[in-house]
Each structure stands twice: as structure tokens, then as C-alpha cells.
From TrEMBL:
Keywords: Coiled coil, DNA-binding. PANTHER family: MERR FAMILY REGULATORY PROTEIN, REDOX-CYCLING DRUG-SENSING TRANSCRIPTIONAL ACTIVATOR SOXR. Residues 1-71 form the HTH merR-type domain. SMART domains: AraC_E_bind, HTH_MERR. Pfam families: MerR_1. This is MerR family transcriptional regulator. Residues 86-113 form a coiled coil. Gene3D superfamilies: 1.10.1660.10, Regulatory factor, effector binding domain (3.20.80.10).
Amino acid sequence: MYKISEFSKLSQVSVKTLRYYDQLDLLKPAHTDKFTGYRYYSADQMFQLHRILAFKELGFSLEQIRRMMGENIPLDQIRGMFRMKQSEIQSLLDKEQARLARIKERLSYIEKEGKDMASLDVVLKEMDEQLVLSYRQKASLKQIPELFGQVDDYLGSFGLSSLTQMVIWHGCDECEDDIDMEVARVLPHEIPGRSPFTVKRLPKVPMMATLIHHCRTTSPCTASTELAIWIERNGYRMVENEPRREICIPQEASVDPEVYVAEVQIAVERA
């Protein structure tokens, strides 16, 4: 048996809290000396205490916990409750992380206000027709590697690999996280398509404004915004219904994996 002070140290729960749990009939001492009033706890009561703390972490009130402790809920059911809570918290964390990324992105855009775009190394060039295998999906940015993984698995069945990687951005009408995008690989020759993969030819574009940019996968990138500003300030306009493209440029294996280089491409015409 352990004195309440000793039990408190072992469990890392304050003496005040243990006394409060006693008053609520939530965790009664195994023995109370009728002469001194000293409370004593058994080692087995540590498991009861951990159950109480576990239920508190799940968001239950002490009154609810008192009733649940009387029901002696099976361990497997408690595990299931924790898995559900874990999933709920992870979902909240993911949403907040996405929100934080959007805040950083907006701040980056604000910091670009008034920046001189004349120094941008924008190149105007003609793009030939391109044969691609693509996979169009509404997804978040963090899902792009997974989408490419599916495309590459399909290509692997034809013995194809290390082909030029491209993202075609179709836009987003009413969404925050899910964007209408198309991941694609440029093909050297025709192969059969199979749902959800499509083999098609991207049309020839007489004039494409392009900008090579370096970005980190963990932070927002403003290359498309910078290119859009350059287009407007230099007397051009975007070609209607021609989605923005982004070509990934392969890097050496020694380069930081979180840094990527890509060429953003926007079809333009004289305004």
C-alpha cells in the first residue's frame, strides 16, 4: 500500500486531484486509517487512475467517467474510442496545417506587392503538341506524389520510367483544399489508356510565357502569381480555356529533396 503522497509521485497526479476524485467517489483509497484519516492506495489502483485520465483525454466529464468506471468497459472498447479520438485530432491537425499553409501563401503574395517584375527571367516560346498519360483528380497539393505514384505504376507495366513530369492546373471553383488538377507524364509513343488514366495529346501552343522557379515543398510558391503580373504588365493576356502547366525539372540526387525546380507555363496572346 502507498500513502497518498507516494501514490501521487508515482502517478504524477497531484494530491489535491486524488482527494477530489475521492470526494466524487471516482477513485476511493483502498484503505483509509480511521484514526488518522490517512489515505492509502494499492498499486492496482494505478490502472483505474489511468482509465480515468484516459477518459478525460477523450473529453468525458468527471460525472460521465464515474458512471463509465462502474460499467467496467472492456479494454478493446477503450482502444477503439482512442483510435476514433486519434483520428479526429489528426483530421483537425491536418486542417489547421492546411490553413496555416494558406496563411503563409497569402502573406507571401502580400509581400510581392509593388515588386519590380522586370527582373524576372520570363521566356516566351512555342510549345509543340505533346503526347501524355494523365490522371485527373480533385485533390490537395500533398496528394500529388501519391497521384504520380499511381501513374508511374501504370507506366511501369509498359516498361516506361523516368519520363518528363507535368502538372496541369484546371482550377478550383468552390474549394479550399481540393484542386482540379491533372498529373501527367510525357510519353515517347502511344500506349493503351485505361480508366482512370487517359492517353491524349496536349495541343500546340503558339506562345507560352514560361518561368523557371525554385521552391520548397514545405512552403508556398508564388511563381505563378509573379508570372501572371509579368504577363499583364507587358501587354499580354492569358489564352482562354488553356490551363496552366508546370513541368518538373529533374535534379541531382544530392540536392535537398524538399527543394524542387519547375517551369510554370501559361499560354498567352497579345492583349
